């Protein structure tokens, strides 16, 4: 199964993904989830390093080789062209995908409580299904 980097690179993605480990699922999916969290953790670190490398290539660096910020939040770039090039490269890596060892989407009941952010971050790997009448909500 593929997940876009735009989700994986978010700082809270792994925490939210980890929350799925508390759901009941088949034994096969449990093992796939464990393998997936390992793949995603490694990939997250690599993405963060790639992101920093790209930013450092275009940003103004201080004497210690660290990125300089304007007003404490906005990255200082050498030029508007470098700002544009940096953003273009960052968008490109965010659109790439990673394969994880999940053979099917994780089923989430339509009446389970969640947040829009969680559903956005998990949209590539979850499927919302209607709760069977035979099951009562816990």
In percent, how much strand structure appears in the residues?
A: 5-15%
Strand order in the sheet with the most strands? 1-4
Order of helices and strands: EHHHEEHEEHE
Mean pLDDT, rounded to whole units? 92
- Annotation, overall tally of beta strands: 6
Structural class: alpha+beta
Fraction of helical residues: 40-55%
**Which residues sit in consecutive blocks of at least 5 with pLDDT less than 50?**
none
Can you describe this structure?
The chain is an alpha+beta fold. The chain contains five helices and six strands; from the N terminus they run E-H-H-H-E-E-H-E-E-H-E. A two-stranded antiparallel sheet has the order 1-4. Helix 2 runs antiparallel to helix 3. The longest helix is centred in the first third of the chain and has 32 residues, at 27-58.
Question: Secondary-structure map with pairings?
Answer:
Elements: E1 2-4, H1 5-8, H2 13-20, H3 27-58, E2 69-70, E3 74-75, H4 80-95, E4 97-99, E5 106-109, H5 116-121, E6 126-129
Parallel strand pairs: 5-6
Antiparallel strand pairs: 1-4, 2-3
Helix pairs in contact: 2-3, 3-4
Q: Nutshell version of this structure?
A:
With 138 residues, this protein is α+β, with helices and mostly antiparallel strands. The chain is 48% helix and 13% strand.
Could you list some keywords that capture this structure?
5 helices, two-stranded antiparallel sheet, alpha+beta, 138 residues, two-stranded antiparallel ribbon
């Amino acid at each position: 199964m593929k997940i876009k980097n735009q989700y994986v690179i978010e700082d809270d993605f792994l925490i939210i993904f980890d929350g799925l480990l508390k759901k009941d699922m088949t034994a096969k999916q449990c093992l796939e989830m464990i393998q997936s969290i390992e793949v995603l953790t490694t990939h997250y670190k690599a993405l963060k390093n790639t992101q920093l490398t790209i930013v450092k290539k275009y940003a103004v660096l201080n004497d210690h080789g660290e990125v300089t910020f304007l007003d404490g939040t906005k990255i200082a770039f050498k030029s508007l062209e470098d700002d544009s090039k940096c953003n273009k490269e960052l968008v490109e890596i965010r659109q790439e995908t990673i394969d994880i060892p999940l053979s099917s989407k994780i089923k989430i009941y339509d009446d389970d409580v969640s947040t829009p952010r969680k559903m956005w971050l998990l949209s590539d790997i979850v499927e919302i299904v209607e709760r069977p009448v035979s099951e009562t909500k816990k």
